[in-house]
């Protein structure tokens, strides 16, 4: 990978075609459960100047990343609930880059951190009760023209949280904000 690609994908691209063993699924749920606290510990004490620093040239600011995480994980939570209650629902994709430009992306990060903590609490309660059969329930993503299982969604969002966490922590390390 080139330097810009390493900044953009610090843990690599989202793997595709994964198998989901019981241990892997448990690890995905654990990562989703721990993520809000892990993120809050990293970003809560950052200054406004630090929060308004892009994690890479042409990339989102730390503030936008935090708000994006709340937006994205809300959508994942809704997709989970739709897949559990409907037969292969077609989900509504959204324009992430456009959402990151909306006025609320300039707010302090506390509301998004609180939202993530409470959202993940509810989401994880649901995820921990899923049966093998429920983990195979699906939804259709018309933007990607693909069908995903809930097991796939767990893998994606465990990766997604770590992907953005690494954007922020590596920026903080490069700039000497943390050791």
UniProtKB/TrEMBL annotation:
Q: Report the InterPro entries cross-referenced here.
A: DinB-like (IPR024775), DinB/YfiT-like (IPR034660), Put_metal_dep_hydrolase_YfiT (IPR023774)
Q: What is its EC number?
A: 3.-.-.-
What are the record keywords, sorted? Cytoplasm, Hydrolase, Metal-binding, Zinc
Is Nuclease set as a keyword in this record? no
Keyword field contains Protease: no
Domain DinB-like, first and last residues per copy: 32-168
What the entry lists under SUPFAM superfamilies is as follows: DinB/YfiT-like putative metalloenzymes
GO MF terms held by the record: hydrolase activity; metal ion binding
Which top-rank group of organisms is this from?
Bacteria
Residue runs in coiled coils: none
Q: Which Pfam families match?
A: DinB_2
NCBIfam families per the UniProt record, alphabetical: PRK13291.1 (NF009807)
Q: What is this protein called?
A: Putative metal-dependent hydrolase
């Amino acid at each position: 990978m080139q330097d810009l690609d390493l900044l953009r994908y610090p843990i690599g691209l989202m793997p595709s075609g994964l198998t989901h063993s019981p241990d892997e699924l448990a690890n995905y749920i654990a990562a989703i459960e721990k993520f809000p606290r892990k993120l809050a510990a990293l970003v809560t004490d950052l200054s406004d100047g630090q929060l308004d620093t892009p994690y890479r040239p042409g990339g989102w600011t730390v503030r936008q990343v935090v708000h994006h995480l709340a937006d994205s994980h809300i959508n994942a939570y809704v997709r989970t609930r739709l897949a559990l209650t409907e037969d292969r629902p077609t989900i509504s994709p959204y324009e992430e880059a456009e959402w990151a430009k909306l006025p609320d992306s300039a707010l302090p990060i506390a509301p998004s951190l609180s939202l993530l903590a409470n959202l993940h609490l509810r989401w994880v309660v649901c995820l921990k009760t899923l049966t093998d059969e429920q983990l195979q329930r699906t939804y259709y993503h018309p933007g990607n023209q693909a069908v995903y299982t809930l097991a796939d969604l767990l893998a994606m969002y465990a990766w997604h949280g770590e992907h953005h966490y690494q954007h922020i922590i590596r920026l903080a390390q490069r700039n000497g904000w943390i050791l």
